[in-house]
Amino acid sequence: MRRQSKWPVAPYCKAATAHQNWHKTPDDPCPDRELARLLSARSESWQDGANVIFMLEDYFSLQLKFATHYAAKAAVPLDVAIDRCTNLRRRLNLWGDTGASRWKLFLNKVKSAVDDRVEQVALCADFQQSLSYIEVKRSFGCFSYDPPDAYGTLRIHFVAPDGINSSPLAIENSSARRADLQELISHVQRTEPRATTVRGVSWLYNLQAYKRLFPTAYSASVQSAWFPLHLNGSSTWGQVLNWRQQVKPDVRDQLLVRLNDMEVATPWLVFPLQALVATSQIEVFYDQFT
What ranges do the domains of the chain cover? Predict the structure, then answer.
């Protein structure tokens, strides 16, 4: 019995036979032709023997390449590099205490497949979990938040959901995004009495289309990070994907070209856009959205 893939088919691969023919042409849109061929030979999810490649496999493959390069630069094992420099743990929904043991098992299996990129990417599909009830409960459309830390700072996040038909940051969708924010902030006001400050750290603050969604005082606070950035979330890695959850070829190519310039202490600097920081008192959000 064939195992069904957990991931949707990339738009350019919806017709399996068309994708098979595409890989016979010199003008090939797939960023990793050999990986696509090897994946098709390995996976049980191919239908009628045709080649199908899934959206996030390109993304995971790129992150594994990044981690491999970091491992060589830093002289650390690949599993350590994956833990430090990718957001695979979040993407596989293995974050926090509940995912710790499964994440450790994933890293051990990746380490045993250190020279087999196809096996590494396939492991991502095998280990991907569904979001927990708590994580879903803190999500409101494109926005979600982390509970206030010990200082009362609440972190907000933005991820385009599945199944949308246009860019969530398009001007025609601005009112829907502000409605998402209003719902989130209203929920926070009711349920998070310790929250005193809102903070965001993201590459998206480089975009006016994103900044215009927020209160003026919050948008005006945007500045460069004064602390080391981590690569375990989407604050930096998010720029690699478009709103369809496909890898952006231009960003991918820029990133790959810059890998040789990577510094072990600051690996995030090889990305085209840097994550910026925005901060304001939470009352600024309450005044606008509640």
Answer: 11-131+239-270, 138-225+275-289
Measured over the CA atoms of residue 162, residue 166, residue 170 and residue 172, the dihedral's sign is: negative
pLDDT tens, residue by residue, 222-235: 999 999 999 999 99
Q: Which amino acid, 278?
A: A
Residue 45 CB contacts under 8 Å (≥ 6 apart), including other chains: 2, 3, 4, 5, 52
Instruction: Give the C-alpha separation, 136 to 218, whole Å.
Output: 25
Q: Provide φ and ψ at 154, rounded to 5°.
A: -105, 125
- What pTM does this model have? 0.78
Check if the beta carbon of residue 183 is closer than 8 Å to that of residue 140.
Answer: yes
Q: Which of 8, 90, 110 is nearest to 57 (CA)?
A: 8
Q: Which of 12, 117, 23 is nearest to 62 (CA)?
A: 117
CA–CA gap between residue 141 and residue 164 (Å, rounded): 11
**CA–CA gap between residue 244 and residue 63 (Å, rounded):** 18
pLDDT at position 3, please?
41
